[in-house]
Design a protein that fits this description.
Layout (H helix, E strand, L loop, with lengths): L4 E8 L2 H16 L4 E7 L3 E4 L12 H6 L3 E4 L6 E4 L3 E9 L8 H19 L3 E2 L7 E3 L6 E11 L2 E9 L19 E2 L2 H5 L5 H19 L1
Parallel strand pairs: 1-2, 3-4, 9-11
Antiparallel strand pairs: 2-6, 3-5, 6-10, 7-8, 8-9, 9-10
Length: 218
Amino acid sequence: MAHALAIDWLGTLPYGAALERQLAAVEARRAGGPDRLLLLEHPAVVTLGRSTKLENLRTPRAQLIARGVEVHEIARGGDVTWHGPGQLVGYLVADLAARGAQDVSAWLRGIEASLMEALAELGVPSRRVDGMTGVFVAAPGQARKIASIGVGLKGWVTYHGFALNVSVDLAGFDDIVPCGLAGVLMTSVAHELGCAADRALFERSRERVAAAFERALA
């Protein structure tokens, strides 16, 4: 059975404005609208999920805010994350009950699979790591994480989603223990390809990700 999936590019949005767009999309879905993938970038922001341990915030909130980094406590699963320019954020609003897929673990694995498909097209082989949610580079040595995932549910309608590091300044992650994973390095598409962190790479990545989710969910 085919399902409708609307994909919107929202450009750069502050976290609070993007959350409002997500919640509006959730209500629209409940009213019979389509599943929706909101793609965007955030200005620098730290988000604290429901499982956040405060010791994973390496820089105190007051210092972050003084530097212009917003801090938000949010209702998704997972620990602390950082978002910033050059990172492709995708918020998935989908009715799992309507899709006959009331299995959150399977939904997370599906998000991982779509991101891995897009990364393969970009020339970055990737993999899962047992016991961890997200996508990692398929390379020997210390685990390198390239995409983080965390979802929330309102009934069986999902929101929140994923963050793919494309051309982001990886120094932003120094303020946190990303997703609470102390032994993991953060990486990006640009870093793995050894290429310029430019807008052309970002746009190409956005196109590949949108196409992968359209194939999986439309």
